[in-house]
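stuck on this chain:
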Amino acid sequence: MRAISRRSLAIGPLAVGALAVGALGTAALAAKPAAADQPVMIFAAATLKSALDAVARAAENTLHLQIVLVYGPSPALVKQLTGGAPGDIFFSADPDWMNDAIARKLVDPTTRIDLLSSKLVLIAPAANAETITIEPGFPLARMLNGGRLAMCDPMMMPAGRYGRAALQHLNVWDSVKDHVAMAADVLAAVTYVARREAALGIVFDTDASLDPGVRVIGTFPAGSFPPVIYPVAAVSASRNPNTERVLHFLASPAARSIFIAHGYTVPAVAQ
């Protein structure tokens, strides 16, 4: 079978109920077995887009099938799946939201793979990229110089929670928590800094590398926040016969090489 051109959708945190549910026929797709040529739908964290787009192209060419990628914040994707949105694979930006999906019986825990890892970094506009050592008590508030710190929701979003944990560990959170410019996702946080709408930002290194308008000025030390892990698993309600094939491809050496080329590392457990 010839591969069909891949489609990509995106959802935002304020539109978590708008994933074309009517057009896709959620109830019908959830209730009926999928045809062998039905696209495999991957619900993936927005931060993965650049790398996963490339991996999906390779998967389509290798497996001769179609993949539909639905990007959004991990909590919004879990909410979509909870509401019955049709999906075959969930690719989270952190273990907590995957654990939540498992607790809700939205994904099959036996298929889970902790697939990727990345680093948490501090970024600045490229023209102001003076490096700093990130350590306990480092002068983050002074570095902002009255500006804002771009980061995702520090209570809900993976990158935001990692950032808050790191700043709390380093005893600087209280000095900057009232100066946060809340971003819808990590890519938006990068954009805020690139456009100088925020003085600094806390993002994943894999996102910082996508925009020449920003530079990494410091890397948060290991141990100051939980390891950044991206787990993937099959959706429990999936009846698509190609779900397992695509999941295996995501963990294959071919996919791994693409992820690594985009700056990700592969935890030992996934190798």
User: Anything to note?
Assistant: The radius of gyration is 19 Å. The chain has two domains: 7-117+229-270, 120-219. The CA atoms of residues 43 and 70 lie 5 Å apart.
